[in-house]
Amino acid sequence: MKAAQITSYGAADVLRVNDVDRPAPAAGDVLVAVEASSVNGHDVVVRSGELKIVSGRRFPIGAGLDFAGTVVETGAGVEGYQTGDRVWGMVHPRRRHVTAAAAEFVVVTPDRIALAPADIPPADAASLVVAGATALIAVRDTVHAAAGERVLVRGAAGGVGTAAVQLAHAAGCHVTALARDRHAEQLTGLGADEVLDYGTTTSDRIGPFDVIVDTVGTELNCYRGRLAKGGRMVTVGLSAGALAAIAASSVHGPRRIRTFSANPDTALLRDLTDHVISGALRPVVHTVHPLADITAAHQAFERGGVLGKHVIAISA
Questions:
Q1: What domain range is 242 assigned to?
Q2: What is d(CA 242, CA 221) in angstroms, rounded to the nearest whole number?
Q3: How many angstroms separate the CA atoms of 104 and 92, rounded?
Q4: What pTM was estimated for this model as a whole?
Q5: pLDDT digits 0-9 by tens, 109-163
């Protein structure tokens, strides 16, 4: 099969699409024919070597975190899935994989997948797995956004940001999206009540907000200062500076900055499916790249400036 692999730590050009042996499911495993994957921040962090404490120094390392596809085989003892089921899911983000989701086939355990929404194409489904799950954990489970609250989504044009705007809107919140001005019309269509241009809007001129969902990971203390009494803030954009701000917020004052590592299980993926079926969450795809162009997809992701996700189409 074809599989995208990281051949050394570095820029996007360390990625290669190699011919490798097709995996076989062991007892308790599910073999999925992957139809689409997407590019996520986690992929770039692994490729850069920032997570080498997890991924190690042995190459190649499999690329890709999330996927949408079809079950082709199940190992002994697997219940609830059968050949032909359309599923979505992700490989474990804190384990090393020789081949991962950006491949024609992937082996996972059943707790890593769920039945995918039936009425959306694989590329759309793949765009929602990591982004949608991360946004759902952030908006619903971490800051508990509630109807009538004022919510700021910072970095609203990205995969997590577009999902967070939709989920906060569905929860009945008043949503302010901070993004490039050229994305205002699309973000309004996703449920934003107000769109502010991040290039001209400074943190001291906005708010206060009951909830801030940050996907950027910079200037966290400045934005924390825009929280109302009892306000909550979560960031999914981690860096050394972000970690310092999170630690400091735990000590100084009640408006703590929260974070988490998204690692959705079947239950969360089922919740995600329900949100898609209800219409509360829909995919936002910027570009679909063939697997052979995964280097270009990573480069485009790192340039930023677009609305929605970069998806990898995979033909098994």
A1: 129-258
A2: 9
A3: 17
A4: 0.94
A5: 999 999 999 989 999 999 999 999 999 999 999 999 999 999 999 999 999 999 9
